[in-house]
Amino acid sequence: MTTFFTELKRGTAASHTALEATYPFSTMMKPAVFDRQAYTQNLLILASFHNCVSNFIQNIENSELLSEFIDTDAVMQAISHDLIALGRQPDFPDFPLISSAESPEHALAGAYVWMGSSMGARILYRWLNHAGYEDFPTAYYQQMIALGQRWPEFVEHGLDYVQQHKLDVDACIDIANQLFDGLQVCANTLSHQKHHPA
Ligand code: HEM
Predict the structure, then answer these.
(1) Residue pair 44/191 in contact by the 8 Å Cβ criterion
(2) Which residues' Cβ are closer than 6 Å to ligand 1?
(3) How many domains does the chain have?
(4) How many C-beta atoms lie closer than 10 Å to residue 19's C-beta?
(5) What whole-number distance in Å separates Cα of residue 11 and Cα of residue 33?
(6) What is the DSSP letter of 27?
(7) Domain at 28, CATH number
(8) pLDDT, tens digit, 9 for 90 and up, residues 178-190
(9) Which segments in the chain show pLDDT lower than 50?
(10) Which InterPro entries does its entry note (predicted)?
(11) DSSP letters of 34-83?
């Protein structure tokens, strides 16, 4: 059964790689191109993603088994805190609508991408603090690191959820990839605005 999560990871690996290659994610850990604007845009995109998942997951029946791990209020508060500290209102871009997000597969895929993003958070937080960006606000990354510590427990509960709802792994992979695509669309919208201000 652990292969369910192995399959999810395998099925979304290409989307993850593509996202990492997209501005502003592509500037992370690259001092020559990383700056305050890239950091701010990164947080705006993530705010849009977290807002979307947090909205749909709470409307999916019996998803508490998963949503207890993602701590939506704390994550949204942390990200707003950081954006305000960076001088931005948390006026994040709209996340592209994903097909009616009501199934248990949506809950699992949303929680998976949310919890999975804590892995990059740990690395990025360490880098920010050792590469001269100590003055950047990092409440969001600290919050994600805290969530990430519960990853093994999340997987265990996730597998129970998979069994209870007889989830289809390919449907979950599809939805997780739609979320990664949404992150890309948000990233492209913001960088388009950067080059062509309204
Ligand atoms: C530049 C930004 C990012 C970096 C450097 C990064 C880095 C990483 C790393 C190192 C891993 C662990 C890979 C492994 O164990 O083999 C990972 C996994 C993952 N990341 Fe990212 N990541 C970034 C952005 C994101 C974003 C924005 C999201 C989604 C919002 C995300 C979602 C995931 C997911 C779902 C996994 C897979 C978890 C698993 O199944 O084990 N990542 N990331």
Answers:
(1) no
(2) 5, 9, 16, 19-20, 25, 28, 49, 112-113, 116-117, 119-120, 123-124, 183
(3) 1
(4) 19
(5) 30
(6) G
(7) 1.20.910.10
(8) 999 999 999 998 8
(9) 198
(10) Haem_Oase-like_multi-hlx
(11) --HHHHHHHHHHHHHHHHHHHHHHTTSTT-HHHHHHH-HHHHHHHHHHHH
